[in-house]
Design a protein that fits this description.
Blueprint: E1 40-43, H1 52-80, H2 87-104, H3 107-114, E2 120-122, H4 123-156, H5 161-164, H6 167-194, E3 202-203, H7 210-214, H8 222-255, H9 259-289, H10 297-322, H11 324-349
């Protein structure tokens, strides 16, 4: 069995991997690393950016605040406004919740890493971050698939929409999305968790990315790679094919409609179709950028960070701009808080 301890390349000098933990030290006799010595990982992140590091910190912090604020607003209005009773808003509520937790698994830890010289994370914390980052990412795609099915039923079977999309069906679809994500994620992350880590312990990414952590395994990971690729293909192909099928059927149905009905149907799908295009487009861009071009390690991390936060950042903006019902609900919500704020201000002044 081949032991892959570290990767020495022009972009990854060996001194980057010198362990900082006293529990995984090199043997002075034969140069091998002591087994079972890694007790924590060091997130390399963007420590080599110097002056650009603070610029990226501010951008990432502002983006994270907007992600939390925008998605929190959608969750609040979708759960409290009695006029937003359509199943679409129930699914949007869940998508916003997933986006918030998805970004929270990585961005706060990355922000703290900008402010410290060494960004460390415990082994359990690293694998929990890895698992939930991947699982929530797949859950987001699965919910987008459920939303595509919802649009298909609404446009192609409008008279049976309320009979099909009942409360139990909505809950079943959401539970199915979460279950599908767990099924596609747990095998790969659990296999990586059980592998031995003898050192080095530097993760060459902005967070505990699965492939970056697997490079630190001191054992043969060929089976792990096959399992990871298989389930990644299953997750992306299943959701992608189902979304594409839904929109093909919607397109066929729209061809039989009048112009006014066709425009209304397109308006119903526009926000979701935009989000789907951005989600799969950004994922494809990150995949391609890692395999072509002369990208440095820091540039690749920046690309992956920005594009992983892009969809959660744009979701509330897109749905707020393209959905009139949601716009009106946000205005009603803000108008309810405005009189209370004025009364409170008057009380303070008196």
């Amino acid at each position: 069995m081949e032991l892959v301890l570290f990767d020495i390349s022009p972009e990854s000098p060996r001194d980057l991997y010198l362990p900082l933990s006293t529990n995984h030290r090199s043997s002075s006799v034969n140069g091998t690393l002591e087994p079972h010595g890694v007790t924590f990982f060091i997130i390399q992140g963007l420590t080599n950016l110097s002056e650009r590091k603070m610029i990226l910190f501010v951008i990432l912090l502002l983006g994270y605040i907007i992600i939390l604020g925008g998605n929190s607003m959608i969750i609040f209005v979708a759960s409290t406004d009695p006029k937003l009773t359509s199943p679409m808003y129930f699914f949007l509520y869940n998508l916003s919740l997933v986006d918030m937790v998805y970004t929270t698994t990585t961005i706060p830890k990355m922000l703290s890493g900008f402010l410290t010289d060494v960004n460390t994370i415990s082994m359990p914390g690293c694998f929990l971050q890895m698992h939930f980052f991947i699982q929530l990412g797949v859950t987001g795609y699965a919910i987008l698939t459920v939303m595509a099915y919802d649009r298909y039923v609404a446009i192609c079977n409008p008279l049976r929409y309320t009979a099909i999309m009942t409360r139990s069906i909505k809950l079943l679809l959401i539970m199915g999305a979460w279950g599908f994500a767990i099924f596609c994620t747990l095998p790969a992350t659990s296999m990586t968790w059980k592998r031995p880590y003898c050192g080095p312990n530097v993760v060459r990414n902005g967070w505990c990315d699965l492939s970056s952590v697997r490079r630190l395994v001191c054992a043969d990971t060929s089976v792990d790679n096959i399992v990871s690729v298989s389930f990644a293909i299953l997750a992306l192909l299943t959701t992608g094919v189902l979304i594409l099928t839904s929109y093909v059927l919607i397109g066929v149905s729209m061809l039989r409609m009048g112009v006014a009905q066709r425009l209304k149907a397109f308006g119903t799908c526009a926000a979701h179709l935009t989000v789907v295009s951005i989600s799969y487009g950004s994922a494809s861009f990150v995949y391609i950028s890692y395999r072509v071009g002369n990208f440095s390690a820091e540039d690749r991390i920046i690309v992956s960070v920005l594009f992983s936060a892009l969809t959660p950042f744009l979701n509330p903006i897109i749905y707020s701009l393209r959905n009139k019902e949601l716009q009106e609900s946000i205005r009603r919500t803000l108008s309810r808080f405005r009189p209370a704020a004025v009364i409170a201000l008057k009380d303070v002044n008196t």
